[in-house]
Amino acid sequence: MRLYEYQAKWLFAAQGIPTPPGAVATDPEQAGAAAEQLGVPVALKAQVLAGKRGKAGGIRFAQDAAGARAAAHDILGATLNGFVVESLLVEQRLDIASELYLGITTDRSRRCPVAIFSASGGVEIEEVARSEPEKLIVMPIDVAVGFQTYHAMNLALRGGLGGKLLTAVADVASRLYDVYWQYDAEVAEINPLVVTQSGQVVAADARMSIDENALPRQKNLPKNAMPGSDLEIAAREQGLTYIPLDGDICILANGAGLTLATMDLIAAHGGRPANFTEVGGGNYLKARQSLAIALSRPRIKALFVNVFGAFARADHIADGFTQALVELKPDLPIVACIRGTEEETAWRLVRERLGIEPYKDMDLAAAAVVARAYGRG
Amino acid sequence: MLAKRSDRVLVQGITGREGTYWTEKMLQYGTRIVAGVTPGKGGQSVHGVPVFDTVEAAMLRRPAEVSVLFVPPMYAMAGACEATEAGIKNVVVLADGVPVHDTMVMLARASQYGARILGPNGPGMIVPGETMVGILPCWLEDVFRPGSVGVVSRSGSLGTAICHQVIRAGLGQSVVLGIGGDPIVGTTTREALEFFAQDGRTRAVVIVGELGGTMEEDAAPVVAEMGKPVVAFIAGGMAPEGKRMGHAGAIVEGDRGTVRSKTRLLAEAGAHIARTPNEVAELLSKAMKTNR
What we know:
The complex is a heterodimer. Chain A is built from twelve helices and 17 strands. By secondary structure, chain A is α+β, with helices and mostly antiparallel strands. In chain A, the strands form five sheets. In chain A, strands 7, 8, 9, 10, 11 and 12 form a six-stranded antiparallel beta sheet that branches. In chain A, a hairpin with a 4-residue loop joins β10 and β11. In chain A, α9 packs across α10 and α10 packs parallel to α11. Chain A is elongated. The two termini of chain A are 43 Å apart. Chain B has two domains: 111 residues, Rossmann fold; 151 residues, Succinyl-CoA synthetase domains (Rossmann fold), CATH 3.40.50.261. In chain B, 37% of the residues lie in helices and 22% in strands. In chain B, the strands form two sheets. Chain B has a seven-stranded mixed beta sheet with strand order 3-4-2-1-5-6-7, sandwiched between helices. In chain B, strands 9-8-11-10-12-13-14 form a seven-stranded mixed beta sheet, sandwiched between helices. The two termini of chain B are 24 Å apart. Chains A and B meet through β7, β8, α4, β10 and β12 of A and α4, α5 and α8 of B.
């Protein structure tokens, strides 16, 4: 779950990482008032969960309150990289001497967190990784020991820092790890970490994303940070993952892997999948909600159900989705392929409730649903 | 690697609904379950298996080589650490929804104690005809049969579907490892291949992968060296770009992680790439005949 910049900065500041004085504004008047209160000049930054915000015109500067109101008027309500700007972060403008990069992220290959530092910050950090990899310091972290001060000092030293700046950056790095660990973050990143003319180190931007599996124990996090369409949000509130696609064959499968394979299979037969809906784990009884969401879109030509149920038993899943379909009564062809635990019961439910014969081979089933969707069968 | 027929198995969370259900299924299959653990339920029994309050208490009376956890995701880290600290060297974590930080902690603990973790978020493992530890529908005869094909899968449901394709090819499995679908897992595709390379019974391998992460890419060098035919199906070619873990994540993975990068590297290493689950059966029959 991505956080907005201002939300991440709250968490950073609470952990003692210096951030610019700032305030959130949702209309031009608030932006003007914030500028007066903070002292000009200010930066006004669109709060959207999209990268390259600066290039898209999402960051403006103002010399006075009137300028702040005007800039806010321009940015609020505008669309940036597909996201409508609903709020701004108004901050004191920094006197920048240099820009650094600092990040803590979970490294899937190394199976541990890594701290990443570069004295060349501010720019696209992927670009630094490609063109000047020697300027990027990557340090794996042993979770049993954590990220101690000596680790942080070594990170900054290897990145070429010394003196007071070394100490200040190392301090921010160890606090950033604390934020990362405490909030179950996937990534906590500061780019740029600004060194001001007066030698202060300040987190000018903040990027943070939280492991959704950890949300049950992260009660104090902001709830409104996930992007997505209304349907995606509705699905998420039901505990389902729903991603709409461009196609017209609606898919209901169990488990992420089988759902991905089902999409591939539909495509291999010349069909166009309409959605990714994960109904894994304990969510199989929520088939009604996920089907209602997936079938509510226009242009859906057929429904393909593909189940290979082991832990989530095939009969339980079949009970859920057949009941849902009896209630929803969608007026389109339905093809179901079902295998797994208690499959005979599952087949019986499909025959009795939907009046269709279930398939046992997913390849034949996929061919059938594509043919029926496009009127070839 | 992990369970053999002779291994004794302990079930953590045995008195829960799923723990009870699957303990019966495992016992029926012949798995040597010697003890169960549920805090506060010591002294009870489930399908004839004695229940203890902690793993340590169980190990004193009924030692085991393998533990399988039927515990909710938020308790998986403590459960896995409890098992490794009590001396169990093979721990199977089934839970879906374990926080990644917890996984990193349990893996650090396991490596300290010389233990191996299978999962989280996987279905466990099966040696067909001998033992099943986890939640695989072992009684389906057109899915699991003894044979010579090693299967490693990141997905439970898809892996099971692919096992059916192995049977369709007229073959059976030596070992099926459900390594789990989480971003970080205890046993990787590469480690599974290294096991299959050494395993005398395994004559061919099927890799069931999916987009994201770099486990398939990391396994490619072993495919090239192992001298046994490998068939791979990587799901997610039709999926939209997955979520990236910010810029820092992109740095770590670079351009890897896509289905294209996985299939390209595996194909270059000599693996046969199936475009659909059914193609696995055809490619496998062919590969077994030519032994390449």
